[in-house]
Design a protein that fits this description.
295 residues, alpha/beta, Rossmann fold, 2 domains, 4-stranded parallel β-sheet, globular
Length: 295
């Protein structure tokens, strides 16, 4: 009887271990892609992010530990458009022949594509266009489409599950986008300032007008002359909002705030978590803060 009980317990433990191991591991360059993947995959997947929301996603140190993590994954989700070029070294270092790499920028209406030759004098300009497309929540649906397709190809037996969760993601996104736009009505057409060129998709989604960046060119700190021009522009356009990434210096935003009264909002371009609702919660937080501040 004792041996039989031990065998049953061991069998249950082994079954649970197999269930955990059976999950499809998905690596993503940024938390937003991992969050959407965790929603679409549900109990069938385990998605994680290489970059953290608190760090600049353009610059991620390529570590052996990341390569090991990715070697255990079946799918890698790239931002593309040159933002996460560092991911190529991680994928190559993983030495995995089974890894499917998905460029989530496919089908995106890419904004701010340079119309002239790009060189170092213009800072960290992306030749393929602005890569921060996930900051338009409508683009989250396009990302979800790519993830569902990759998962179905990897795991056809659960294809109906992924298709069902994709439809749920689409319907929930539609409702939430409508609610967010209603919250932002008071800011429609308002001029704002941003620190880095991360926010064009967010601004377009909610009908905000970006008059300038604190950086004169992406990745280049502002000079005194540039700040003087920004003061004049803020006053002329009655700009009240500055959106700043927390990993950039506070010096210029504090100066502009003292000089003009502009209010700086510190938002990370990526959501701070990878849970299935983290992508949406990030918009809840940003929209909530901006709409509250406009009253």
């Amino acid at each position: 009887m004792f041996k039989s009980s031990v065998f049953i317990v061991f069998a249950m433990f082994a079954s649970n271990m197999n269930s955990v191991q059976a999950k499809i591991k998905i690596a993503a360059s940024v938390p937003d892609l991992a969050s959407i993947a965790n929603f679409i995959g549900g109990d069938q997947v385990e998605a994680f992010s290489i970059a953290k929301a608190s760090g600049n996603p353009h610059f991620v140190q390529v570590l052996p530990s990341y390569m090991i993590q990715v070697s255990r994954a079946s799918i890698y989700l790239k931002v593309g458009l040159g933002l996460d070029a560092w991911a190529d070294a991680i994928v190559e270092g993983s030495r995995s022949n089974q890894l499917t790499v998905v460029d989530c920028s496919k089908d995106i209406n890419v904004l701010q594509k340079p119309t002239s030759k790009v060189d170092a004098s213009r800072g960290d300009v992306h030749p393929q266009g602005n890569p921060h497309y996930w900051l338009d929540p409508a683009n989250g649906v396009l990302i979800a489409n790519h993830i569902a397709t990759a998962l179905t190809q990897e795991d056809p037996s659960h294809g109906s599950v992924y298709a069902s969760r994709l439809e749920l993601f689409k319907s929930e996104s539609t409702k939430r986008i409508s609610a967010w736009r209603a919250q932002m009505l008071g800011l429609n057409g308002k001029s704002i300032l941003t620190y880095h060129a991360s926010w064009i998709y967010f601004a377009n989604a909610f009908e905000l007008n970006i008059v300038d960046q604190v950086e004169p060119f992406p990745g280049i700190p502002p000079s005194g002359q540039h700040l003087k021009g920004l003061v004049e522009k803020i006053k002329a356009n009655k700009v009240q909002i500055l959106i700043q990434e927390p990993y950039f210096s506070d010096d210029a935003p504090k100066f502009l705030s003292r000089t003009t009264g502009i209010v700086a909002y510190r938002f990370t371009p990526s959501c701070p978590g990878i849970t299935s609702d983290a992508y949406w919660k990030h918009f809840d937080d940003m929209v909530g803060a901006l709409s509250k501040g406009s009253k």
